[in-house]
């Protein structure tokens, strides 16, 4: 089973992924969690380039690097895990590329990004996508509590476009389960469990 979590930076994905992994393992499931970009030696090197605030990167380079990291993770880790019957939970997948690079950066037409996403994901589609919906204001307050990476420094207008993009993506795919990311952590975790 392939599950991914989506939402803007600061929405609480990492916390909910940790809680879900614990819950599934307590119920006898073998679980692997991977973050995007990352999860392999190559993808982690790409991650460091992408998130380094000192790098002045073209938006096309950013799109292609995210896709390259994803292709490596899917081929090296995700496909073998799924073939072994492992439940894979992803902290972001190609929906993030559509929202961030497609709508946020407006780097290419969305249909072209979807073609690239399909290629980089080897055609894999998550069975469930949990989207933690949160206001831009609350997400910004949460992000300010830690050092910000290159993407997080993109500004309010960028994040506004990303949020609008996610809402459009959600309407197009029935696999999305929308959660109120402003709710208490345990309330969100309980709701997630009801969908498994």
Tell me what the structure shows.
The chain is built from 8 helices and 5 strands. With 196 residues, the chain is of the alpha/beta class. Helix 4 runs antiparallel to helix 5. The protein is globular. The model has no long low-confidence stretch (mean pLDDT 94).
What is the strand and helix layout of this fold?
Blueprint: E1 2-6, H1 13-26, E2 31-35, H2 41-51, H3 59-83, E3 87-91, H4 94-104, H5 110-120, E4 128-133, H6 136-143, H7 156-172, E5 176-180, H8 185-194
Parallel strand pairs: 1-3, 1-4, 2-3, 4-5
Helix pairs in contact: 1-8, 2-3, 3-5, 4-5, 4-7
In short:
By secondary structure, the protein is an alpha/beta fold. It contains eight helices and five strands, in the order βαβααβααβααβα.
Fraction of residues in H or I helices: 40-55%
The strand count comes to: 5
Q: Helix and strand succession?
A: EHEHHEHHEHHEH
**Tally of DSSP helical segments:** 8
Strand coverage percent: 5-15%
